[in-house]
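in:
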């Protein structure tokens, strides 16, 4: 039987690596991250799994023969919560450990590296899935200019041969919702229908830097006013295109020269949009590009747009999803739902290799990526039980 006390104890122990107040600071390849991976590797070894680190630092605990893969990631945001990713890894460990104790089925475990994006986001699973090469990943830099190649030297001699995905029959990832839906409804389990796709590009608007006191408003080519007009127009134009689940964000804004007495001559910002429908992503992109073109013409700005990057939406595998739904009905009758994932997860990349499925437990207040991130213990245990039953064990 699943040992819920052992599961909760391990989850809190993992929290101790990089603990700060109620949160955790455990970025990819940091001392705390490596220490946490070493502890997890020891737990996998004691559970009878074969421990393997690949070149990226993805940590696998492998069962013998063909197996179902469970897990998530154990790195955190620069100032992150204690459950994001960690829940899925520790729950996977408990299911695999119990399976070994009961004599089957074969369950393997993974903790992917750099899901949280020190070097771009879901980097470890992107390399493992073939979405990018290790050479391409190595060239990425963090906000301090450190390359991934430099950072992953922290793995030292832990690194071994690559792990062949052909040995796995599928992948299930348990995660906190990171949103308010389940908590607001008083529900315990969300069975994911699909993971949204996202697109992102960097935009630079260039106007004319000038004196803030002597330049008449009618003669200004103010880059920030261009951004402001674009934002207002975009919000208005997208209303006829999107659904309540669609989201878009202007962020990472850099204004130049960023001085109180100078008309801004340039602004650089990120433009990101997410939706579960590929055609709608395309339509949103068209609206964004049209609105930008109109604003730069009206304000008299130059426009430079970077490449559009992103991932396409991914539907969950019907057979694995059905197993989660059956388990949810048993563990949380009347307190579960089908729902999309608005956040990106490693499962998106793993879907390139094998069938995938996901389930969520509530986030109190819908808070995540913050020290306040939390989930009630009863809900954590419910998620573990659903995962175990879907994997072929008694909850």
């Amino acid at each position: 039987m699943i040992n819920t006390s052992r599961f909760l104890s391990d989850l809190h122990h993992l929290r101790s690596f990089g603990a700060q107040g109620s949160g955790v600071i455990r970025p990819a390849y940091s001392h705390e991250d490596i220490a946490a991976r070493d502890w997890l590797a020891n737990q996998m070894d004691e559970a009878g799994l074969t421990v393997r680190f690949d070149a990226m630092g993805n940590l696998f605990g492998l069962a013998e023969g063909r197996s179902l893969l469970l897990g998530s990631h154990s790195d955190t945001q620069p100032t992150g919560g204690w459950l994001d990713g960690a829940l899925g890894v520790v729950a996977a460990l408990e299911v695999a450990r119990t399976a070994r104790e009961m004599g089957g089925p074969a369950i393997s475990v993974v903790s992917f590296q750099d899901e949280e994006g020190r070097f771009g986001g879901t980097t470890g699973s992107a390399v493992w899935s073939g979405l990018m090469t290790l050479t391409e990943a190595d060239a990425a830099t963090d906000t301090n200019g450190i390359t991934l190649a430099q950072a992953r030297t922290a793995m030292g001699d832990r690194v071994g041969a690559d792990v062949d995905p052909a040995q796995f029959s599928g992948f299930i990832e348990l995660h906190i919702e990171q949103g308010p839906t389940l908590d607001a409804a008083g529900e315990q389990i969300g069975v994911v229908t699909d993971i949204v796709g996202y697109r992102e590009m960097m935009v630079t608007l260039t106007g004319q830097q000038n004196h803030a006191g002597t330049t008449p408003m009618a003669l200004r080519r103010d880059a920030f006013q261009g951004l402001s007009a674009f934002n207002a127009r975009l919000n208005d134009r997208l209303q006829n295109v999107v659904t309540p689940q669609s989201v878009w964000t202007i962020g990472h804004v850099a204004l130049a020269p960023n001085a109180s007495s100078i008309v801004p001559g340039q602004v650089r910002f990120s433009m990101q949009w997410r939706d579960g429908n590929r055609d709608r992503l395309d339509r949103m992109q068209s609206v964004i590009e049209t609105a930008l073109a109109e604003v730069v013409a009206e304000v008299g700005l130059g426009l430079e747009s970077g490449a559009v990057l992103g991932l396409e939406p991914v539907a969950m595998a019907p057979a694995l999803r059905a197993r989660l739904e059956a388990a949810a009905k048993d563990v949380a009758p009347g307190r579960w739902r089908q729902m999309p994932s608005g956040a990106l997860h490693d499962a998106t990349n793993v879907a390139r290799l094998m069938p995938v499925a996901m389930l969520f437990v509530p986030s109190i207040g819908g808070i995540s990526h913050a020290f306040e991130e939390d989930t009630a213990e009863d809900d954590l245990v419910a998620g573990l039980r659903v995962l175990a039953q879907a994997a072929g064990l008694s909850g």
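note: The two ends are 7 Å apart (CA to CA).
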